[in-house]
Amino acid sequence: MVAALPGGEFLAFASDCVDDIEKVRIACENRLRQFTRTEQDQDGETRGWGMTLDHPQLATNAALLKTIKHDSDVLTDIGYDTSVITRTGIRGCACLECQAVRNLQKLMREHPLGPWVQRTVGVGEKQCARLLAAIGDPYIRPEIARDDGTVEPSRPRTVSQLWAYTGYHVDKIPVNSHPPRDTHASSAVDGSDIPASQNENDTHWGVAGGEVNGHPSHRELDIHVDAAGVAVKRRKGQRANWSATAKMRAYLIAESCIKQHNSPYRTIYDNDRTNNANATHQHPCERCGPKNHPAPPGTPLSDGHKHARALRKVAKELLKHLWQEAKRVHDTPN
Asked: Structural domain boundaries of the chain?
């Protein structure tokens, strides 16, 4: 049993509170927006009620929403006065969501990885705290309780296993037709030595879908086959063996980082865009082709595909640096 960095459980608790409050706020916004909508939908139908805040019940609900989030977009849209408190005054705001965010940021500053977050431009306390809530200790894989009742104790994990857990591994798609032979691959979340579809050099095939705590699986592979790496994605009817929440959180931080031109991750993004300026598809690409007509191999990547590829690179580097910092903290004597 290897102990994870302290404070992670409270960070996850505070992050869940922020998530819950956000969901309530969004639901309230949607209801209030529907009552006050006057715009037509794309089919020409007007489905909003077209009411105003002159109605006492709507005014009451708008005031309630303001206690959840003072600068809610829907309040501004319907003319509710939100000028008393702005985002610049968030530290003194008493609304529920701001209080929950302040608590989460405080816990992030007190976390062993807090100093790294504070000195890294583009990585905010709120978003990084939510990422850590999704992945736990970047360096330590948590304990796993299997369906058969056995328990696999926590232990250190590699960078590639962290990438696999967060969905930043790849599937290998063959680009020729050599006869296949069988090989072994391991689930990303079960913590085996070889994670799903990825090792440090992306040289192995693995399982993109399957049971979260599944056992190592078999997959066809010819060691002489030329293969192209394809980013994994969720498929309808298939259970992913990686955390969609963690992947989304890393992606959001990557988006934030590239907006800061003095962030080291902006340089990573720019370099990747330069390196892939003339990149072409090695396999059919659904992203770059019309619906049901993937772009064929040999065609150039679209600008959107290049952007997504560079953001993926930034997210993987971010996760690697978090892993390195967590390892450094673990290896530093108290």
From this structure: 8-111, 158-334
